Amino acid sequence: MSVYNGADALPRTLHSVLSQEGADFEFIVIDDGSSDASGRILDEWAASHPRLRVIHQHNTGLTRALIRGCAEARGAFIARQDCGDVSLPGRLAAQVAVLRARSEVVAVSCHTGFVGPGHEPLYTVEFDEQRLNVGLREGVSGRFVGPSHHGSMMFRRGDYEAAGGYRAAFHFAQDLDLWTRLIERGPFAVVHHALYEAMLEPRSISGTQTQEQQRLAALIAGATCARRTGSDEAAYLAEAATIRPARRGELHRRVALGHYFIGSCLRYTNPRAAGDYFRQALASNPWLWRARLRWLQVVISRAVGR
User: Fold this and answer.
1) What is the pLDDT, as a whole number, of residue 141?
2) CA 219, 114, 69: angle at the middle one, nearest 5?
3) In the chain, which stretches have pLDDT less than 70?
4) What is the 3-state secondary structure (H, E, C) of the chain?
5) In terms of C-beta density within 10 A (0-12 exposed, 13-18 middle, 19 or more buried), how is residue 89 classed?
6) Is residue 107 a contact partner of residue 156, using CB atoms and an 8 Å limit?
7) What is the largest CA-CA distance in the chain?
């Protein structure tokens, strides 16, 4: 796991992993140059949890932090985890059991439940094995489709290394790039239970860098097709390395869209929370008229319902 200024969410994530039972593991966390209390929190937890190994470094970004973390791994299997997310009870044991029982499988995922910043349930993403393997081998509508969430994955360290691991050219979408290479070494499996909980945070990479991730997904598709037909993928990697985070001025608009999306997910199940997210969307972008419309609809609905 890589952490960059995740102090508020860190204890909950640490507890979810360190309380896992039925699997022998070491939890490697890269403190990627945090300027908040993340480093101190990690050191305090490590002092009382021998399975937690903390590595502090200057900020390098998620991909390079993952490269280092995986290089430090000593176990036969590597499981991913994101700060702010939760591994539900039994996750590690269930995935280890699959990899031990099915020698042909190189990686295993599970279903993922998504929650809002206030831990409001939003939706669950479920993949069956056939859909996942077809999505990575053949693609869907010209794009390759990965598992329910990056953090839901566990894979064999030997296959990870043989496939070339995470590649620094991909500032984002480093997971899809890895999955399209791992699938060339063997099939993926899926534990058909929601054992991972991912938080949708409008200011996260997924929330603010969607357009960049989509551009990288197209380059990954090109690189994958080139590699599988014996052609050179260097041009795709070179272009991928030029795609960097969106400029600060653009982030406000994208954060607003993130709050709007979460509000839309909660519109019928939790109108009060939905209204709060629509208001936050308008605070970031007052010209987001669909957020204003939804907020008014929620206000009127609550007033009529009284």
Assistant:
1) 77
2) 60
3) 207, 248-249, 305-306
4) CEECCCCCCHHHHHHHHHCCCCCCCCEEEEEECCCCCHHHHHHHHHHHCCCEEEEEECCCCHHHHHHHHHHHCCCCEEECCCCCCEECCCHHHHHHHHHHHCCCCCEEEEEEEEECCCCCEEEEECCCHHHHHHHHHCCECCECCCCCCHHHCEEEHHHHHHHCCCCCCCCCCHHHHHHHHHCCCCCEEEEEEEEEEEECCCCCHHHHCHHHHHHHHHHHHHHHHHHHCCCCCHHHHHHHCCCCCCCHHHHHHHHHHHHHHHHHHHCCCCHHHHHHHHHHHHHHCCCCHHHHHHHHHHHHHHHHHC
5) middle
6) yes
7) 66
Task: Supply the angle between the helices 271-284 and 248-266 in degrees, to the nearest 10.
Answer: 160
Token pair of 155 as six digits: 């894979």
- Give the length of the chain: 306
- Position 203 scores a pLDDT of 82
Contacts of 282 (CB under 8 A, 6+ apart): 256, 288, 291, 292, 295
Phi then psi for residue 140, to 5 deg, are -130, 120
Assessment of whether the complete model's pTM goes beyond 0.90? yes
φ, ψ for residue 113, nearest 5 deg: -95, 130
Place of tokens 């932090």: 65
131, 192 in Cβ contact below 8 A? no
Structure tokens at 179: 């999955």
Q: What is the pLDDT at residue 192?
A: 97
Residues 155, 132 contacting (CB under 8 angstroms): no
Which of 273, 182, 271, 261 has the alpha carbon at shortest distance from 220? 182
Q: Which residues pair with 86 in a beta bridge?
A: 197
End-to-end Cα distance, the chain = 46
pLDDT of 207 reads 67
pLDDT digits 0-9 by tens, 135-180 = 999 988 778 999 999 999 999 999 999 999 999 999 989 999 999 9
What single-letter amino acid sits at 100? R
